[in-house]
User: Fold 3-oxoacyl-(Acyl carrier protein) synthase II from Chryseobacterium carnipullorum.
Amino acid sequence: MSAVYINSTSCISVQDTLKDHFFQDLKADPSVQVLKAIDPNYKEFIPPAMIRRMSKTVKMSSIASNYALKEAGIEKPDAIIVGTGMGCSQDSEKFLKNVIDNNEEFLTPTFFIQSTHNTVAGQIALGLQCHAYNFTYVNTSSSLEFSFLDAQIQINDGEAENVLVGAADEQTNRTMELYRLNNTIKKEEDLPADYLHSETDGVIWGEGAAFFVLGKDKTENSYAQLKDIQIINRLNTEEINSCIESFLAKNKVKKEDIDAVILGFSGDAKSDVYYTKAMDLFQNSALLYYKHLSGEFNTASGFSTFMACHILKEQQIPDVMMINATKKEEIRSILLYNHLAGSDHSLVLLERAL
Assistant:
């Protein structure tokens, strides 16, 4: 497939990523089990009567997509594609609670209707009055990557010129309780988390929404060129380096040509070994990590893609993201590697839009 361009990007996250020049204000908090996204002033964008009926995922996505479209100078995209791991789980929990509290009788369908995973893409389309291609991918940690692949296909096949692509996930109280019980979330006694040299299992959980406008043509404001994506469901730790090498070879890129590698270290000792192995390949690259800033969640790769876009455009790397001391004079290419608990591995190759 031909490369496409990321012409705008927006993110709501644990960091204040909606404001300008946010690089210097990035802060990690390794001492809490759950990180909450910073809420913008939703009333500036959404009527108060509608806000009450929206889950956090829909609200975050509505604002982030609005920012991305505005930056790209597009009123209606030719397609809307959204990735999510958990969907609108707040409304799912409300519906299930009603089922239990009312003994499965006299149930209103509102929470059920609003709990479906494609609610986000649907609400964005309704807000824009956009009747174009509308699709949702639910593929755990590779949901955004599948959305990017679909957008590439739409653009390469001539079905679309500009595609709104996003990823979002929210937290819910009951799900967080369950994650604590099954040790998905780190125990209190294992905090503060050591993301790079962890000896304990579990992660600090986060949330957020990231949106991008992908186009077939480069613009003055383009952030990056999306060169290629590869997704693999299962890998042994011994296979990861050969997998990365074959991915780079397919794109006629040498590992020495990769200026920066963004790895998804989550502080989970069991699954972070993949990233430790991958680091061995890139002795001359800047090695970065990001989940200490965003938390771990199904679509955390949206945050890393957002950061990669800004690094390529602004040609600087925040010190808080750096694993090693390597710094390149020019950052032309970035490789992103992510997985969730050792499954659904994704590789994304971005290049500077020149």
In short: Residues 79 and 133 are 5 Å apart (CA to CA). The mean pLDDT is 93.
